[in-house]
Design the sequence.
């Protein structure tokens, strides 16, 4: 990790490890996100812009334009990551009256342009992250009512997926609040049915392990794919909307969420899943572990490696964390590969997948567009203060190690 990044990580993690500073920053960021005032809009008020960028944005976000984002992607790949996931920040939260201006059609068109612009910044094997709510009120209304995607939305999605397929960039659909999720699942299954064919998996759906109903939902995805002969891409997360979600849908405590997450991973890596017929061939499946939890990442990777070593059936596994979060987990994965290379373990091209395939997930957009994304990162840290403190201790240790070694060299 470059020294500049280390120092910035140290500063942000210090802020996030203080419950008082975190409690203070969330309401301020919410005001900044939704206020109609010029003064509170960081895209218009240059002083606020510098402040938000300097404190949080530069740590968690990739940039405000293609040039800045390109620089961030290059630096991630130079550090050894296999690829990146890039998303455009615009989104709508249920109950927040912040619809962008213009007719519904114009808003979908703006979203499509932003998404295609994002796609153009990516290469083969990277991922484009899409938030369906980003397409604005017409999509939100259809999703809330459980309807099919409106024709203008379907056209936009088709254009985006066709372009992704052409350049071999994969595409994942983010999971959002439950009021939208039934439709997001249905729309995404339709895309998988169309694009995940002939052994290729282009489209991934996001499944949230904190929901009690997720194992049943995964079995539904897999059974449909098995019956109809298409492939499933699953990005597995724990879930980020606990603060605003119907609480009874979510596991009663965090331990149950951990057990659910790790159990789903073990089943998927074994190509078996409760509720999916074992009489027929298991569908083509690829798994992306999107988590900052070191234990889940470690367990998932070790199970997968062991199954491969023993010649047991398994699936393609990739792992990723958000930019600015759990850097020691991400860098640990990159290091495993670097140690394998420097130990002279020759790995032929066909076996490249023995490596833990490590990704960083980046978000780009104007400072204001990214504020809700930043709020979720801050809230997430508030929910796991012990871990944030452990990150802080790890970063301090690394800084001290570097200081001592440069003094010794000097
Ligand atoms: C690359 C990437 C992409 C992501 N994309 C999405 C996405 O599309 N949609 C989405 O919703 N989230 C997404 N997330 C966020 C994710 O859902 C988690 O909020 C976040 O990663 C923290 O979970 P963790 O696996 O890192 O584990 P930990 O930090 O160990 O677990 C914290 C999580 O446990 C759960 N939890 C906390 N308290 C309780 C409780 N009392 N009862 C039950 N469960 C509890 C919550 O889900 C909480 O986020 C993404 C995360 C990453 C790394």
Sequence:
């Amino acid at each position: 990790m470059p020294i500049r990044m280390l120092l910035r990580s140290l500063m942000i993690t210090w802020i996030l490890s203080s419950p008082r500073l975190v409690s203070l920053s969330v309401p301020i960021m919410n005001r900044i996100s939704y206020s109609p005032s010029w003064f509170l809009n960081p895209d218009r008020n240059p002083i606020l812009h510098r402040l938000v960028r300097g404190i949080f944005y530069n740590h968690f976000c990739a940039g405000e334009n293609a040039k800045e984002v390109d620089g961030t992607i290059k630096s991630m790949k130079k550090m050894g990551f296999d690829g990146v996931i890039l998303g455009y920040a615009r989104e709508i939260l249920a109950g927040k009256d912040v619809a962008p201006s213009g007719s519904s059609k114009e808003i979908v068109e703006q979203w499509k342009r932003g998404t295609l612009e994002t796609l153009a910044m990516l290469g083969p094997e990277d991922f484009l992250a899409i938030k369906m709510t980003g397409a604005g009120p017409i999509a939100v209304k259809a999703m809330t009512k459980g309807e099919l995607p409106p024709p203008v939305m379907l056209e936009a999605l088709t254009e985006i997926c066709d372009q992704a397929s052409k350049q071999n960039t994969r595409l994942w659909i983010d999971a959002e609040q439950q009021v939208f999720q039934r439709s997001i699942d249905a729309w995404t299954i339709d895309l998988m049915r169309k694009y995940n064919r002939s052994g290729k998996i282009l489209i991934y759906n996001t499944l949230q392990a904190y929901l009690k109903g997720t194992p049943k939902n995964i079995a539904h995805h897999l059974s449909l794919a098995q019956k109809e002969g298409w492939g499933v891409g699953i990005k597995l997360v724990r879930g980020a909307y606990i603060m605003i979600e119907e609480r009874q849908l979510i596991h009663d405590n965090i331990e149950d969420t951990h057990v659910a997450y790790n159990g789903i991973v073990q089943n998927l890596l074994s190509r078996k899943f409760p509720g999916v017929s074992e009489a027929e061939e298991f569908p083509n499946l690829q798994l992306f572990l999107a988590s900052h939890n070191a234990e889940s990442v470690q367990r998932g990777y070790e199970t997968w490696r062991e199954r491969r070593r023993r010649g047991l059936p398994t699936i393609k596994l990739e792992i990723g964390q958000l930019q600015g979060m759990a850097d020691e987990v991400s860098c640990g994965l990159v290091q495993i590969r670097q140690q394998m290379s420097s130990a002279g373990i020759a790995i032929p091209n066909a076996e490249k997948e023995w490596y833990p395939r490590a990704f960083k997930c980046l978000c780009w957009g104007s400072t204001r567009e990214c504020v809700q994304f930043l709020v979720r990162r801050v809230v997430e840290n508030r929910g796991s203060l012990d871990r944030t403190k452990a990150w802080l201790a790890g970063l301090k240790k690394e800084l001290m190690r570097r200081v001592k070694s440069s003094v010794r060299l000097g």
User: Anything to note?
Assistant: DSSP finds 14 helices and eight strands in the chain. The chain has two domains: 1-59+381-410, 62-364. The chain has a mean pLDDT of 88.
